[in-house]
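Morning, I've got a small favour to ask if you have a moment. It would help a lot if you went through both lines with me. Thanks so much in advance, here it is.

***
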Amino acid sequence: MKILITAAGSYGDVAPYTGVGARLRDAGHDVALATHNTYAPLVRAADLEFRHLPADPRTARPADADQDKAVAASGNRALMRQAAAFIQQLGGGLAEATRQDTELLLLSATTAPLGRHLAEAMEIPCLDLPLVPNAPTGDFAPVMSGGRSLGRWGNRTVGRLSLRVVDRLYATATRDLRTRLGLPPATPRTVRRRAETAGHPVLHGFSEVLVPRPTDWRPGLEVAGNWWPWHSPNAQLPSVIEDFLAAGPPPVFIGFGSMASGEGERLSSLAVRALRRAKVRGILQSGWAHLTAETGSDDSGASETCGTSGACSTSGTSGTSGTSDILTIGEVPHALLYPRMSAVVHHCGAGTSAAGLRAGVPAVPVPVTADQPFWAARLTSIGAATAPIPFKDLTADDAVTRLAEAITRATTDPALRERATHAALRLTSEDGTGAVTKAVAHLAG
C-alpha cells in the first residue's frame, strides 16, 4: 500500500512518525513522510521517502530575539496569529506532497484538518494520528488550556469551544484548498462533524500510563500508546558523552527543546548555577535556546561544550575530581541518553515527557506553553515528577534556588524514582506502532 504520512511543527511534532513509518515499511508498505526540510535527515535515516512541506518553524522564526520574547509575553493571541500564518502555507504544500498514486493518508493533529479534504478529493481513506488528546471530554480540560480541571461540564464545554477555535484557524486555508481541489465549499466544522458522525477512526500516540482513555469518548477514538522516534539499532552515544558519563555519578539533563529561542544566555547561566548549587553534574542540550555550559563558567567548577560532531572545549576551573562537571551537547536520541541520567529537567513536550518516563527517570517539569502544562501536571499526578516550575517563573529572583531545590529532590527522593520506574515498566509492555500497523491493515483490507 502506498502510504503518505504528513506531520508539521517542531521536532517533537515530527520525529515520532519516523517510528510509525519504519514499522509500516517493515510490514511491506511503501511509505513517504511529508514534513519540513529540517527533518529530512530523520526521515531518510529511517529509510522513508522524504517529501517537502513549507512553513518550517525552525527557519521561519521571528526576525530577532526581541520579537520572539514579545510573542511569548503576549501569550495565546500572538501564538494563534503565528499558527494561522503557519497553517495557511501548509495547505498548498500538502496538496503538492500528495501524489495521485497515494492510497492512504496518515495525518498528524496539525495536518489532519487539511488532509481530510485531500482524502475526500482523491476518494482514499485517511487515519488521524494525533500525539495529544484533542477530543472534548469531561475527564480533563483541553490540553491547551493549562491542565486545570473545570469540572466535567466545564471541561466538555471548553473542549468544544477549543475545537471551534481550531476550525477558525483553518478556515481560510480550508477554503483555498477546497477551491484548488475542485471540491464544493465546506467549513472546517462541517467536515469535522461529518467525520465524527461517520465514526472516523483516530489513534492517539500517547500512553494510558499518563492519560487513560476518557470514559466519554465516542467509539473509534483509541489510545494506541507512544510512537518513538526511529533510530538505528546500532546507534551509540558519541564517545565524548560516554567519557563524561564514565567520569562521575549520573548527571542531570537540562533542555528546552524547541522552546525559549533567544534566551540562551540567561537560561544557561541559570542552569549552570542551579546545577552547582544542587551539587550535581549536568548535561545541557543546546536546543533552540542555544544553551551552553560556557555561560556561568566563572562559578566554581568546570564545564565542557561539544557539538554533534563530538568536538569539545573546556572552560572554567577544574573541580575537585579534576574533570568537567557540565557538558553541552547537540541532538542525541533520548532513548540512549535519558536512562543514564539521575533526573531530567525539560519543557514537557509530549514526546520528551514520555521519553523521560520510559527511562524511569524522575522529572523536573518546566512547561513553557501550549500542551506542556498539561503533560507537566500528568507527570506530577502519577508521582514521577516534582511540582512544575512554570517557565515564566525562571525570571524571578529566586529562580536559581527554586530550580536547585527541585533538582535536589528529583535526585534524592526514592519515591519519585520508584514511581518513575514503575511507569517505565508499564510503558515497555505497550506497542503503539503495532496498533497503527493493525489499523492500516484493516483499512487496506
